[in-house]
Amino acid sequence: MTKPLGKTWSDERMQRLIGNLLRWGVLLSAAVVLCGGAVYLSRYGSTRPDYAVFRGEPAELHTPAGIVNGVFHGSSRIWIQLGLLILIATPIARVAFSIFGFLLEGDLLYVGVTLLVFGVLVFSLFASH
Amino acid sequence: MNVLTMTILIFACSLVAGLLGSLTGLGGGVIIVPVLALLFGVNIRYAVGASLVSVIATSSGAAAAYVREGFSNIRIGMFLEMATTAGAVSGALLAAHISPSAIAVIFGVMLLASAYLSSRPQPELFPPTGTNRLAERLKMKGTYPVGQGQQEYEARAIPFGVGVSYLAGIMSGLLGIGGGALKVLAMDQVMRIPFKVSTATSNFMIGVTAAASAGIYLRRGYIDPALAMPVMLGVLFGSMTGSRILPGAGTRALRIIFSVVILVLAFEMIYKGVTGSL
User: Fold this and answer.
1) DSSP code at position B154
2) Does the beta carbon of A73 lie under 8 angstroms from any beta carbon of chain B?
3) What is the total count of domains within chain B?
4) Is residue A81 situated within a structural domain?
C-alpha cells in the first residue's frame, strides 16, 4: 500500500520545478497586465465601454511578433496584451520543460507524446490563420 | 456605467468564478462567459476570448499548489493532452463558422451537462482490481496521499477516455471553457481514476488545452486586452485562494452549490440564444 508506484524521484522533482516555473510565469504575467491595466484605466477609466459589438482587435494585437514589436511605442492596451501573451506562454513552457524532464528520465514514449502536444501549441500560436 | 466601474464589477465576478472553479475543478471559465454575456452584455466572441485567458490563469496559477499536494499525475495528463489540444484547435477553428446565438445554445446545453455530472453522487475511491496491460505500458498509474498512507490507482478504458478528452478539447476551443467537467468525467468516471487525482490532473491539463485555442483566438482578434485584464486578474486571485483550501474542502457540498449557479446560467443562455437576444 505504501510502495510508490510509477513515480520516481526525478518525476517528483520535475513536477516541483514545473509548478514553480508556472507560478513565476503567471506572477510575471499578472504584474505586466496590472501595470498596463492601471495605465489604461487612468487614461480611459471614465469613457463608456463598448464590448457589445464585435469588431475584432487591431492587427498589431494579433500576433506574438506584433505585440512584442509594439510594446516600446505602443499603448497601454499592448502592454496588457503582452502580459496575456506571457500567460499563454506559461503552459507552452511547461510542455517544453516536460520534454526535457522525460528525456532526463529516459522515457522516450513520453518524450514523443510531449513533442506532439508541443507541436500543436506552436502551430496554434505561430502558424494558424 | 463607465469603463472603471465595469472593470471593477467584472473583476469582482471573476474573483468569485475563479474561487468556485478552482474548488470544484470545473474551471472559472464555466461561468465567466455567461456572466459577461448575460450581465454585462459583452459580445460572446470577446467573452470567450477573455474566458480562455482566465482559464489559463486558473490552471497555471493553481498548478504549483496541486503539485505540492501530490494529487496530479503528469503522465496521464500529458497523454490525454494529445487529445485535448487537437480538440481545442478543432473547436477554435469551428468557432468562426458558428453564429453567436448557436454558441450560446451549445454553451447552455454544455452547462446543463456539467451541472448534471457534478450533482451525481460519486464514491471517492476506485482501488484497481488486477492490472490493465495498456495502463502498464503507458505508465498511466500512480499513488496519491490518503490519510497516513498512499493509495494506488491505475487507468481503465484508456481509448474511451481519450475520446471524451478530444470532445472536452472541442468544447474548450468553441466555448472558451477549460472543459474541466468533461476532463474529470473522462478520468474519474471513464478511466476510474480517483476523484481528487482527476480534478488536480484536469486542472493541470486545462491550461495547455486552453493555450492551444487561445493562440488561435489571439490571431483572430477575439482577445480584447481591456476586457481580459479584470477577468484574468480576478480569476487568478480567486483560483489561487481556492487551490489553498482544496484538500480540506467537502467536494460534494461545493459541487451542489456550483451546480445550482450553473443551472440558472444555462437556462438563461439557451433562452437568449434561441430568442436571438444575445
Assistant:
1) E
2) no
3) 1
4) yes
Distance CA B65, CA B242 (A): 10
Instruction: Kindly compute the dihedral angle of the four CA atoms of residues B35, B40, B43, B45, in this order, to the nearest 10 degrees.
Output: -30
CB atoms B215 and A128 under 8 Å: yes
Q: Residue B158 and residue B155: Cα distance in Å, rounded?
A: 7
Cα A95–chain centre separation = 11
The answer to whether residues B193 and B126 touch, using CB atoms and an 8 Å cutoff, is: yes
**Residues of B numbered 191-230 whose beta carbons fall under 8 angstroms of chain A's beta carbons: which are they?**
207-208, 210-216, 218-230
Residues 6+ apart with CB under 8 A from A82: A32, A36, A67, A68, A71
**Cell digits for B86?**
487537437
Are B52 and B183 a contacting pair, CB within 8 Å?
A: no
Q: What is d(CA A94, CA A113) in angstroms, rounded to the nearest whole number?
A: 14
Using the Cβ of B127 and the Cβ atoms of chain A, whether some distance falls under 8 Å is answered with no
Does A2 map to a domain? no
**Do the domain assignments include residue A7?**
no
Q: Which domain holds residue A106?
A: 20-43+57-127
- pTM confidence score: 0.85
Question: Where does residue A50 fall: left (phi above 0), alpha (psi -120 to 50 degrees), or beta otherwise?
Answer: beta
| Contact yes or no for B218 and A62 at CB 8 A | yes
Domain that holds residue B129: 3-275
Task: Pick the closest to residue B92 from B168, B173, B210, B207 (CA basis).
Answer: B173
pLDDT in tens, A14-39: 777 777 888 889 999 999 999 999 98
Three-class DSSP category at B146:
strand
Per the structure, the count of domains in chain A is 1
Identify the pLDDT of residue A2.
39
Question: ipTM for the complex?
Answer: 0.84
Cβ <8 Å between A120 and B220: no
